[in-house]
Protein backbone atom coordinates (compact mmCIF):
# COMPACT_ATOMS: atom_id res chain seq x y z
CA UNK A 1 0.00 0.00 0.00
CA UNK A 2 2.92 2.34 -0.63
CA UNK A 3 1.15 4.34 -3.36
CA UNK A 4 -2.56 4.96 -3.73
CA UNK A 5 -4.25 6.95 -6.49
CA UNK A 6 -7.33 8.75 -5.18
CA UNK A 7 -9.94 9.39 -7.84
CA UNK A 8 -13.57 10.43 -7.69
CA UNK A 9 -16.73 9.76 -9.62
CA UNK A 10 -16.88 13.53 -10.14
CA UNK A 11 -16.14 16.80 -8.40
CA UNK A 12 -17.28 17.55 -4.87
CA UNK A 13 -17.59 13.91 -3.82
CA UNK A 14 -15.25 14.15 -0.82
CA UNK A 15 -11.99 13.14 -2.46
CA UNK A 16 -9.80 15.57 -0.50
CA UNK A 17 -11.46 14.66 2.80
CA UNK A 18 -10.97 10.96 2.05
CA UNK A 19 -7.33 11.59 1.18
CA UNK A 20 -6.83 13.55 4.40
CA UNK A 21 -8.54 10.80 6.42
CA UNK A 22 -6.26 8.09 5.06
CA UNK A 23 -3.24 10.34 5.61
CA UNK A 24 -4.30 11.10 9.19
CA UNK A 25 -4.61 7.43 10.14
CA UNK A 26 -1.30 6.49 8.54
CA UNK A 27 0.52 9.41 10.17
CA UNK A 28 -1.07 8.54 13.50
CA UNK A 29 0.48 5.08 13.20
CA UNK A 30 3.90 6.62 12.76
CA UNK A 31 4.09 6.25 9.00
CA UNK A 32 5.83 8.83 6.85
CA UNK A 33 3.05 10.14 4.60
CA UNK A 34 3.16 12.24 1.43
CA UNK A 35 0.23 13.67 -0.51
CA UNK A 36 0.74 14.71 -4.14
CA UNK A 37 -1.73 16.99 -5.89
CA UNK A 38 -0.59 17.10 -9.51
CA UNK A 39 -2.96 19.86 -10.60
CA UNK A 40 -4.95 22.27 -8.44
CA UNK A 41 -7.60 24.17 -10.38
CA UNK A 42 -9.97 26.95 -9.46
CA UNK A 43 -7.66 28.47 -6.85
CA UNK A 44 -5.58 31.65 -7.05
CA UNK A 45 -1.84 31.82 -6.37
CA UNK A 46 -2.19 33.01 -2.78
CA UNK A 47 -5.33 31.06 -1.86
CA UNK A 48 -5.36 27.80 0.12
CA UNK A 49 -5.92 24.73 -2.04
CA UNK A 50 -6.77 21.11 -1.32
CA UNK A 51 -3.38 20.43 0.23
CA UNK A 52 -4.00 23.16 2.81
CA UNK A 53 -7.08 21.20 3.90
CA UNK A 54 -5.03 18.00 4.07
CA UNK A 55 -2.45 19.67 6.31
CA UNK A 56 -5.12 21.25 8.50
CA UNK A 57 -6.91 17.95 9.02
CA UNK A 58 -4.17 15.31 8.87
CA UNK A 59 -1.31 17.17 10.51
CA UNK A 60 2.27 17.63 9.36
CA UNK A 61 2.46 15.30 6.36
CA UNK A 62 4.54 16.06 3.28
CA UNK A 63 2.58 17.76 0.49
CA UNK A 64 3.50 18.67 -3.06
CA UNK A 65 1.56 20.51 -5.76
CA UNK A 66 2.92 20.50 -9.30
CA UNK A 67 0.65 23.00 -11.09
CA UNK A 68 -1.93 25.56 -10.05
CA UNK A 69 -4.46 27.02 -12.46
CA UNK A 70 -6.90 29.79 -11.44
CA UNK A 71 -9.92 28.67 -13.49
CA UNK A 72 -12.26 25.93 -12.16
CA UNK A 73 -11.87 23.68 -15.19
CA UNK A 74 -10.13 20.44 -16.07
CA UNK A 75 -6.33 20.77 -15.79
CA UNK A 76 -5.94 20.69 -19.58
CA UNK A 77 -8.60 23.35 -20.20
CA UNK A 78 -7.39 25.51 -17.29
CA UNK A 79 -3.80 25.35 -18.54
CA UNK A 80 -4.87 26.29 -22.06
CA UNK A 81 -6.90 29.25 -20.84
CA UNK A 82 -4.17 30.55 -18.53
CA UNK A 83 -1.33 29.98 -20.97
CA UNK A 84 0.55 27.90 -18.43
CA UNK A 85 2.28 24.59 -19.21
CA UNK A 86 0.33 21.36 -18.89
CA UNK A 87 1.32 18.25 -16.99
CA UNK A 88 2.48 14.95 -18.44
CA UNK A 89 2.01 11.53 -16.82
CA UNK A 90 5.78 11.11 -16.73
CA UNK A 91 6.21 14.32 -14.73
CA UNK A 92 3.53 13.28 -12.25
CA UNK A 93 4.91 9.75 -11.96
CA UNK A 94 8.43 11.07 -11.41
CA UNK A 95 7.22 13.32 -8.58
CA UNK A 96 5.25 10.45 -7.01
CA UNK A 97 8.21 8.09 -7.24
CA UNK A 98 10.47 10.70 -5.69
CA UNK A 99 8.11 11.11 -2.75
CA UNK A 100 7.59 7.38 -2.44
CA UNK A 101 11.30 6.87 -2.04
CA UNK A 102 11.26 8.81 1.22
CA UNK A 103 7.81 7.93 2.58
CA UNK A 104 5.89 4.86 3.68
CA UNK A 105 2.68 5.96 1.97
CA UNK A 106 2.18 8.30 -0.98
CA UNK A 107 -1.33 9.43 -1.89
CA UNK A 108 -1.90 10.93 -5.35
CA UNK A 109 -5.09 12.98 -5.49
CA UNK A 110 -6.50 13.58 -8.94
CA UNK A 111 -8.67 16.44 -10.18
CA UNK A 112 -12.24 15.29 -10.75
CA UNK A 113 -12.53 11.82 -12.25
CA UNK A 114 -10.21 9.20 -13.64
CA UNK A 115 -10.35 10.40 -17.25
CA UNK A 116 -10.10 14.17 -16.72
CA UNK A 117 -7.43 15.38 -19.13
CA UNK A 118 -4.09 16.78 -18.04
CA UNK A 119 -2.87 17.77 -21.50
CA UNK A 120 -3.86 18.08 -25.15
CA UNK A 121 -2.69 14.53 -25.86
CA UNK A 122 -5.38 13.17 -23.56
CA UNK A 123 -3.19 12.10 -20.65
CA UNK A 124 -5.22 11.25 -17.55
CA UNK A 125 -4.90 10.05 -13.98
CA UNK A 126 -5.45 6.54 -15.31
CA UNK A 127 -2.17 6.84 -17.22
CA UNK A 128 -0.41 7.96 -14.05
CA UNK A 129 -1.78 5.04 -12.04
CA UNK A 130 -0.76 2.59 -14.75
CA UNK A 131 2.78 3.95 -15.03
CA UNK A 132 3.22 3.69 -11.25
CA UNK A 133 1.48 0.36 -10.82
CA UNK A 134 -0.52 2.02 -8.05
CA UNK A 135 -3.79 0.82 -6.59
CA UNK A 136 -6.86 2.99 -7.23
CA UNK A 137 -9.33 4.14 -4.58
CA UNK A 138 -12.68 5.38 -5.93
CA UNK A 139 -14.40 8.06 -3.86
CA UNK A 140 -18.11 8.05 -4.64
CA UNK A 141 -21.26 9.91 -3.75
CA UNK A 142 -23.86 8.27 -1.55
CA UNK A 143 -27.11 8.84 -3.39
CA UNK A 144 -28.97 8.37 -6.64
CA UNK A 145 -26.77 8.14 -9.74
CA UNK A 146 -23.64 6.99 -7.95
CA UNK A 147 -23.86 3.37 -9.09
CA UNK A 148 -23.54 4.22 -12.78
CA UNK A 149 -20.68 6.66 -12.21
CA UNK A 150 -18.85 4.19 -9.99
CA UNK A 151 -19.34 1.30 -12.42
CA UNK A 152 -18.06 3.41 -15.32
CA UNK A 153 -14.98 4.45 -13.35
CA UNK A 154 -14.23 0.90 -12.27
CA UNK A 155 -14.75 -0.52 -15.75
CA UNK A 156 -12.40 2.02 -17.31
CA UNK A 157 -9.81 1.34 -14.63
CA UNK A 158 -10.00 -2.43 -15.14
CA UNK A 159 -9.82 -2.18 -18.93
CA UNK A 160 -6.69 -0.07 -18.60
CA UNK A 161 -5.01 -2.68 -16.47
CA UNK A 162 -5.53 -0.95 -13.14
CA UNK A 163 -6.57 -2.52 -9.85
CA UNK A 164 -9.39 -0.87 -7.91
CA UNK A 165 -8.67 -1.57 -4.24
CA UNK A 166 -12.02 -0.33 -3.01
CA UNK A 167 -14.60 2.41 -2.83
CA UNK A 168 -15.15 5.08 -0.16
CA UNK A 169 -18.32 7.13 0.26
CA UNK A 170 -16.83 10.57 0.77
CA UNK A 171 -19.83 12.35 2.27
CA UNK A 172 -22.53 10.33 4.05
CA UNK A 173 -25.62 12.48 4.74
CA UNK A 174 -27.01 13.01 8.22
CA UNK A 175 -30.39 11.76 6.98
CA UNK A 176 -29.72 9.24 4.21
CA UNK A 177 -32.59 8.45 1.85
CA UNK A 178 -33.60 5.04 0.54
CA UNK A 179 -31.21 5.25 -2.44
CA UNK A 180 -28.20 6.01 -0.23
CA UNK A 181 -28.96 3.12 2.12
CA UNK A 182 -29.54 0.73 -0.78
CA UNK A 183 -26.30 1.86 -2.42
CA UNK A 184 -24.30 0.66 0.57
CA UNK A 185 -24.82 -2.90 -0.68
CA UNK A 186 -24.72 -2.08 -4.39
CA UNK A 187 -21.63 0.13 -4.56
CA UNK A 188 -19.17 -2.75 -3.98
CA UNK A 189 -20.89 -4.61 -6.81
CA UNK A 190 -20.64 -1.59 -9.11
CA UNK A 191 -16.99 -1.07 -8.22
CA UNK A 192 -16.07 -4.75 -8.25
CA UNK A 193 -14.23 -3.97 -5.03
CA UNK A 194 -15.06 -3.71 -1.31
CA UNK A 195 -16.58 -0.79 0.52
CA UNK A 196 -13.56 0.53 2.42
CA UNK A 197 -15.17 3.41 4.23
CA UNK A 198 -18.04 5.81 4.76
CA UNK A 199 -17.14 9.31 5.94
CA UNK A 200 -19.78 11.65 7.38
CA UNK A 201 -20.83 14.86 5.65
CA UNK A 202 -19.25 17.95 7.16
CA UNK A 203 -16.17 16.10 8.38
CA UNK A 204 -13.94 18.77 6.88
CA UNK A 205 -15.04 21.26 9.54
CA UNK A 206 -13.83 19.08 12.42
CA UNK A 207 -10.77 19.85 14.50
CA UNK A 208 -7.75 17.63 14.02
CA UNK A 209 -8.41 15.35 17.00
CA UNK A 210 -12.07 14.87 16.16
CA UNK A 211 -11.19 14.39 12.50
CA UNK A 212 -8.76 11.58 13.32
CA UNK A 213 -11.32 9.86 15.56
CA UNK A 214 -14.07 10.03 12.96
CA UNK A 215 -11.68 8.97 10.21
CA UNK A 216 -10.79 5.92 12.30
CA UNK A 217 -14.46 5.08 12.74
CA UNK A 218 -15.21 5.62 9.05
CA UNK A 219 -12.33 3.82 7.35
CA UNK A 220 -11.54 0.14 6.97
CA UNK A 221 -8.88 -1.68 9.00
CA UNK A 222 -7.04 -1.82 5.66
CA UNK A 223 -6.24 1.86 6.35
CA UNK A 224 -5.84 1.36 10.09
CA UNK A 225 -9.45 2.20 10.89
CA UNK A 226 -12.35 0.38 12.53
CA UNK A 227 -15.08 0.57 9.89
CA UNK A 228 -17.15 -2.61 9.54
CA UNK A 229 -19.28 -2.45 6.37
CA UNK A 230 -21.75 -5.13 7.45
CA UNK A 231 -22.41 -3.42 10.78
CA UNK A 232 -22.79 -0.05 9.07
CA UNK A 233 -25.17 -1.43 6.44
CA UNK A 234 -27.24 -3.15 9.10
CA UNK A 235 -27.45 -0.02 11.22
CA UNK A 236 -28.36 2.21 8.28
CA UNK A 237 -30.97 -0.24 7.00
CA UNK A 238 -32.60 -0.48 10.43
CA UNK A 239 -33.22 3.25 10.41
CA UNK A 240 -35.24 3.15 7.18
UniProtKB/TrEMBL annotation:
Catalyzed chemical reaction(s): (7R,8S)-7,8-diammoniononanoate + CO2 + ATP = (4R,5S)-dethiobiotin + ADP + phosphate + 3 H(+)
Enzyme superclass (EC): ligase
Keyword Magnesium tagged: yes
GO cellular component terms attached to this protein's record: cytosol
SUPFAM superfamilies: P-loop containing nucleoside triphosphate hydrolases
Cofactor list: Mg(2+)
Positions with a binding annotation for Mg(2+): 16, 53, 109
PANTHER family: DETHIOBIOTIN SYNTHETASE
Protein name: ATP-dependent dethiobiotin synthetase BioD
Species in which this protein is naturally found: Amycolatopsis orientalis
Amino acid sequence: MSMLVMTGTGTGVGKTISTAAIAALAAGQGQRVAVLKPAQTGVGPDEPGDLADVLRLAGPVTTRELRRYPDPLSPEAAARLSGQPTLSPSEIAAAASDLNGEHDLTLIEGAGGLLVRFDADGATLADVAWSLGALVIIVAEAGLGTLNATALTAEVATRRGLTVAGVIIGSWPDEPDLAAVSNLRDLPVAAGAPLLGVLPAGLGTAGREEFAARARAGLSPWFGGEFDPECFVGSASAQK
